[in-house]
Amino acid sequence: MPAESISELLKAAEKQHLPLWEVILRNDLAESGKSREASLRQMAALWEAMKHASRSYSGRARSSSGLVGGDGAKMAAYAKSKKGVGGFLIDRIAAEALRMGESNACMKRIVAAPTAGSCGVLPAVLIPLAERENIPDEEIVHALYVAAGFGQVIAARASISGAEGGCQAEIGAASAMAAAALASLKKGAPQTSAHACAMALMNLLGLVCDPVAGLVEIPCVNRNVVGALNAVACADMALAGIRSRIPADEVIDAMRAVGEQMPPSLRETGQGGVAATPAGLAAARKLREG
Fold first, then answer.
1. Is 195 a member of any domain?
2. How many CB atoms lie within 10 A of CB 52?
3. Please, what is the angle between helix 190-203 and helix 6-16, to 10°?
4. What is the domain extent for residue 25?
5. Separation of alpha carbons 264 and 272, rounded Å
6. How many structural domains compose the chain?
7. Is 192 a residue whose pLDDT tops 70?
8. What is the SS3 assignment for 100?
9. What are phi and psi of 54, to 5 degrees?
10. Domain annotation covers residue 189
11. Burial group, residue 49, by CB count within 10 angstroms (0-12, 13-18, 19+)
12. DSSP calls for 65-83
């Protein structure tokens, strides 16, 4: 059966003397009835789909609204120049997040992780790292199980829907999942992944969902960059021994409570936040008028 809490996953890993990804894989098998080989094959296919989405990105593509497109190519070129403040890897992660977000807006094939609007976070941290460190696909697949397990708990205890909980439930959840996956990938203990998850989600608590013209484009695409870089920072903090004072499960519960307190205008309706600015309203009006 799926875990109902992060603490449950940690206890199972400790009791069974298993890595976190293996506990989550076994939970998946118990819930789905699939064979081990079928589950691993399915997760490997998701990783291949992420890599394919990256390879097939086109800087010439534009969304049907014309609001987004091409920024991923600009960021990738900037990363190659090695003039960035954060260095090549950081700029490469930012470029990958933009590319994935734009691919979603341009109706390309992406992996919802956990949603289409937050599809850029996980691949943005995993693809550049895998390339830089020549990480085997098998290890990435294991890290994806950690991300999936943590995401399942977030979905069960709170939400992964912007319409229900604001963007904290989408980009926030994706960032928490990515932070946990990175900590696991870098051989952190299960508790390290939990601390990374807690800090990442806490950093984005209260993030509103305010899509301009009701489209998952502005500011959604750029927020994938924020989620990815937040995940990297929180994974590194956890790996350095920094601990979240608030347990992951309690942060998830707090996210649910914050989402419930958000007014509808800040939950994907396109009526508040940057969607309600003069520029946001003008963009919506222009699209309506054709």
1. yes
2. 14
3. 170
4. 6-289
5. 9
6. 1
7. yes
8. helix
9. -70, -45
10. yes
11. middle
12. TSSS-SHHHHHHHHHHHT-
Q: What share of the chain is helix, strand, coil (3-state, %, to 5)?
A: 70, 0, 30
3-state secondary structure at position 267 = strand
Q: Kindly report, residue by residue over 72-128, the tens digit of the pLDDT.
A: 999 999 999 999 999 999 999 999 999 999 999 999 999 999 999 999 999 999 999
CA distance 232 to 234: 6
Contact status, residue 21 vs residue 202, Cβ threshold 8 Å: no
Residue whose pair of structure tokens reads 């912007």 in the numeric block: 162
Note the pLDDT tens digit of each residue in 135-159: 999 999 999 999 999 999 999 999 9
DSSP β-bridge partners for residue 267: 209
108's tokens = 């390309």
Q: Which of 86, 96, 83 is nearest to 125 (CA)?
A: 96
pLDDT band at 1 (very low <50, low <70, confident <90, very high): low
Task: Kindly report whether the global pTM for this prediction surpasses the value 0.90.
Answer: yes
Q: What is the DSSP code (8-state) at residue 86?
A: S
Largest separation between any pair of C-alpha atoms in the chain: 61
Both tokens assigned to 252: 């998830």
For residues 147 and 177, the answer to whether their CB atoms sit within 8 Å is: yes
Domain membership of residue 135 (yes or no) is: yes
Tokens of 151: 């995401």
Separation CA 237–CA 227 (nearest Å): 15
Q: Could you tell me if residue 1 is inside a domain? A: no
Report which DSSP code applies to 104: H
